[in-house]
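Hey team,

Filing this mostly as a record. A colleague (T.K.) asked me to run one chain through the structure pipeline before their review meeting, and I want the input and output archived in the tracker in case anyone asks later how it was produced. No errors, nothing strange. Just documentation.

Input sequence:
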Amino acid sequence: MRSYDSKIMSLEGMKAARERIRKDGRRLVFTNGCFDILHTGHADYLAFARQQGDALIVGLNSDASVRKLKGESRPLVTQDDRARMLAALEAVDFVVIFEEDDPRRLLQELLPDVLVKGQDWAHNVVGRDIVEKAGGRVVLAPLTTGRSTTNIVNRIVASHAHGG
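Output structure:
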């Protein structure tokens, strides 16, 4: 077992970890996403999110959830591999895979102190109401210009189409 595998948790395991974190007076940060192909934009984003508190939970869309959101050709990387890649990052303390289209249920169960989303979601931060009602706050993370999974996929497709 790799040392980071213990960071990947069920919701019940995460709730128990949350209680230990809260008992120690530490602040819990939550973010979520597909994280299909990790890139520097993700690394910057997750490092920023981690700086907003004492422990970072990443809610990871399951494969079925990603297919609903992004189409049948996605994800390119399985949920287990995506979870392991995220867990291997220093900024990430916990990874919880969720099946729903959005993280509302996770947010209701975990009630983090801080919810972080990218600035591109400013108009519609899913779960803002849940976190703020519980006394938490929402923080918008700056975007790393020109870095996105879609851009990477498009470059791969273009390269392949041109015999690259």
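Quick notes for T.K.: Residues 59 and 103 are 7 Å apart (CA to CA). The domain at 3-161 is CATH 3.40.50.620 (Rossmann fold).
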